[in-house]
Every structure is written in structure tokens, then in C-alpha cells.
Design a protein that fits this description.
- Its cofactor is [2Fe-2S] cluster; [4Fe-4S] cluster.
- InterPro entries: Aldolase_TIM (IPR013785), BATS_dom (IPR010722), Biotin_synth/BioAB (IPR002684), Biotin_synthase (IPR024177), Elp3/MiaA/NifB-like_rSAM (IPR006638), rSAM (IPR007197), rSAM_sf (IPR058240).
- Pfam families: BATS (PF06968), Radical_SAM (PF04055).
- GO terms for molecular function: 2 iron, 2 sulfur cluster binding; 4 iron, 4 sulfur cluster binding; biotin synthase activity; iron ion binding.
- With 324 residues, the protein is of the alpha/beta class.
- The chain has a single domain, classed as TIM Barrel, CATH 3.20.20.
- The protein contains 12 helices and 10 strands.
- Strands 1, 2, 3, 4, 5, 6, 7, 8, 9 and 10 form a 10-stranded parallel beta sheet that branches.
- The protein is globular, with a radius of gyration of 18 Å.
- It starts with 7 loop residues before the first helix and ends in a 12-residue tail after the last strand.
- The mean pLDDT is 95.
- It binds S-adenosylmethionine, 6-(5-methyl-2-OXO-imidazolidin-4-yl)-hexanoic acid and iron/sulfur cluster.
- The site of 6-(5-methyl-2-OXO-imidazolidin-4-yl)-hexanoic acid has 17 residues, from strand 2 and strand 7.
- Iron/sulfur cluster (SF4) binds next to loops.
Amino acid sequence: MIRTNWTMAEASAIYALPFADLMHRAQTLHRAHFDPNAIETASLLSIKTGGCPEDCGYCSQSAHHETGVKATKLMGADEVLAAARRAKASGAQRFCMGAAWRSPKDRDMDKLCDMVRGVSDLGLETCMTLGMLSPEQVARLKAAGLDFYNHNIDTSPEYYAQIATTRTMEDRLDTVEQVRKGGIKVCCGGILGMGEAEEDRIAMLVTLATLPAHPDSVPVNLWNEIEGVPVQARAQAVDPFALVRIVALARILMPASVVRLSAGRTGMSDELQALCFLAGANSIFVGDQLLTTGNPATWKDQDLLARLGMHIAPAQVRPRGAAE
Ligand code: SAM
Ligand code: DTB
Ligand code: SF4
């Protein structure tokens, strides 16, 4: 049963279960909704890097922090399509284009729609993450064929103000709602390891699991260390079992959503990743690069999946260019 009325007390009790009981519950639900040996693969490209007016305390791309990331202009559609072809050749099913914006400018919309159409015609699922969107911008991206939109809540409602001040969690949730109402699938999750309490991590998942509809995919990022950002001073390493517990809790609260083990895999052992897959994670980013930080090499991921007998899942939505 898909529930959207979870309470903090219920979620905290599940999170605190003995590890074997928690894993059994997560796996039972995982198997009821998904092939447990299948994994979804997405590839990221930063189509507009740095110089962002927002002050997110974890981000290398904010103009408020000295991180050494060089600001670039929006890439041309041809360059984006060349990267999408390479991503497809190395096994990606979805191509996610990210821009360091508070929100896109209307003058950029034609180019963005061209990118969506072009990537879709290659037979890839399309995803974008561009900041806040107006309902008109949602409609234009939807008409161009955008399948998914990523917009994270990042942390709990209580901790949010410690992380960003140029926008609120309500702003984030408004965009998520516009995207959902506009018929684009929602990808929404957050980050662990920014100095938040375990309770904040649970509250972040409860916030997602009590939306009118669960996000279609839930990225769980481990904070990727960035020199020069405010989060660096309060970041704390996440206990590996705490990560697995959060993945399991996401699987239990949102059983039909895809849970993506996102940033932070370069620092994880193969064994920890395998435990996360057992706990219900069923998506990863593939390719050597995330937006401005690294990701495991393609050969390493292929080797890990082969050793675990896992295969790439059939795409959730049929891209426009895919064979019938
Ligand atoms: N500007 C858009 C936005 O904020 O929605 C899109 C790009 S933004 C980089 C996408 C997401 O990446 C953030 O919401 C955050 O969850 C994640 N992220 C950014 N920096 C990160 C880091 N250093 N470690 C882990 N995740 C990070
Ligand atoms: C998400 O939740 N993680 C991705 C994607 N959505 C856009 C981004 C991770 C970024 C990691 C830091 C970087 O590479 O700059
Ligand atoms: Fe800008 Fe997004 Fe980075 Fe925040 S997370 S500073 S909005 S690019």
C-alpha cells in the first residue's frame, strides 16, 4: 500500500529497528515493487556551471562561495547532444542536464526545449534540474518531451535555514508541486552529511513521503566535500549503517519510488554499495563526472554490477526515439 500519511514517530521507529528486521522489511517491499536485481542508470551533464545567485551552503557553484569553480555560459544544444550520445554509449538510460540557476530565464527556454527534444530523439529518458520553474516553463518543457525534473529539498524543514537563505523549503516544494501538476515526473531527494542530526534525515524522508504524491525518484546524496563552502565547517562523516538505514527507510516509506544512490559513491566501498542495493537503492549515476565532482569510473561500476549479478533495468518511461 502506498501511504502519504506517515508520521515522524512511525518513521523513527522503523529507522531504529534491529538491522536485520529493517533490511527484511525493506527487501520485502523492494521485491513487491521492483526486480531486485535491476538497476537504473542516469548520466549527468552540467549544461551551465557556476556563478549561481543562490547561497546553498554545500554547493561549489554558488557565487557566494570561493570554490575555484569557473562560471560558464549555457552550452549549445550540439555540445549537449554529443555528450548525450557518449552517455548512451557507456550505458546510461537517462540523461540529466543541470544548470546553476535560481530559475531559467525565458530567453533560454527555446534552447532548453531543443536539448530535451534532441536527447529524447536519441532514445534516452530526459531529466533537467534548472532551479525554480513557473507553470509556463513547466508546460513548455513538458511539451518538448521532458520526462523528469530534479529539484531536491536537500534536508529537513527544521535544518533548511542553516543550509540556504536565498530561498525557503516552501519555494522548493512549490516548484515540485508545479512540476507534478504539469505532468512531468518528479525527482526529489536530499543530502546526508551536512552536520544534520539523524532526526533531520528522517524528517527529510517524512516530508517527501507525505507530499500529495511520492516523488517518482528519490536521490540520496552523501555530501561531496567542496573546499571553500560553509557546509565544510560543519560536515560530518555519515556512519555507513546510518546511510543504509536511510536508504531502507526511503524504500519502506515510498515503496514504489526509485531510490538513487547519488553523490558520494566514490568514497563508498563495494560492500557498502551492495548493502544499499539490498536496502532498496535501485538507481545510480554512471559516468566519471557528476556536475563539478567525480563519480566512480564506468569500468568500476560495470565490474560491481557484474559481480552482484545485477542488470540495467528497462527504462521507466519510453523515450520518444526508442524502438517500439
Ligand atoms: N540549481 C539547481 C537546483 O539547485 O535545483 C540544479 C543544480 S543543484 C547542483 C542539484 C542538487 O545537487 C542539489 O539540490 C543538491 O541536492 C545536490 N548537490 C549539490 N552540491 C552537492 C554536493 N557537494 N554534494 C552532494 N550533493 C550536492
Ligand atoms: C542529485 O540529487 N544529485 C545530482 C543531481 N541530483 C543533479 C547532483 C550531485 C552533485 C554533486 C556535486 C557536484 O558534482 O557538484
Ligand atoms: Fe545554485 Fe543549485 Fe548550487 Fe544552490 S544547489 S547554489 S541553486 S546550483
